[in-house]
């Protein structure tokens, strides 16, 4: 609450980490570098992960992370942007930003709680995420200086959970190896999430998700009527239409 982030070291078992890394590598096959400076022209990104969750499921639903996100946003929330990121050698530091900056909300509204899962060790040399501790409480006109930043150094299998108001950026990868991460935003249920998960996942894809992931895909109504389809809870609608 005070610093705007917490590092949860070594949350994954060796088996879970190895499976997640293998899944990441499978998804990254044939993926080209991004075509813009913000994402990074030496960075590969994979989106639409809810239609190919695979070995990422234990990361997306990890109870320690889920508890923190629920504490910050309440029981009902949804994924915002969700992507696999591979920061390749030579990728320079990303532009500093805070994720909730996409919403025209006052700075004191906590609209997002986000997670970066380290699939490789995050080091000062390979572009560990840079954060400005406490910056989630800064006024709207304050920007971080170099002295405000620290790297999120953590071993593979760890996660950093942080406020969507925290200033941060991917660091400069000066190493010889790729730095892979699973980045998972969670937003309040009445906001439009950055990614369109329902369209990307499709009706059959949504049905095949676990109930928890389906809720996080945006199926849980924000409140009665808010998010309904055909006048009812989309969870009921999805299952009723199987029977039709
Ligand atoms: O990869 C990272 O360390 C952070 C990436 C990030 O903040 C973003 O792309 O929005």
Automatic annotation (TrEMBL):
The keyword tRNA-binding does not apply. The keyword Oxidoreductase applies. Keywords: Dioxygenase, Oxidoreductase. Transmembrane segments: none annotated. Signal peptide: none annotated. One of its GO terms (molecular function) is iron ion binding. It comes from the Bacteria. SUPFAM superfamilies: Clavaminate synthase-like. PANTHER family: ECTOINE DIOXYGENASE (PTHR20883:SF48), PHYTANOYL-COA DIOXYGENASE DOMAIN CONTAINING 1 (PTHR20883). This is Ectoine hydroxylase-related dioxygenase (Phytanoyl-CoA dioxygenase family).
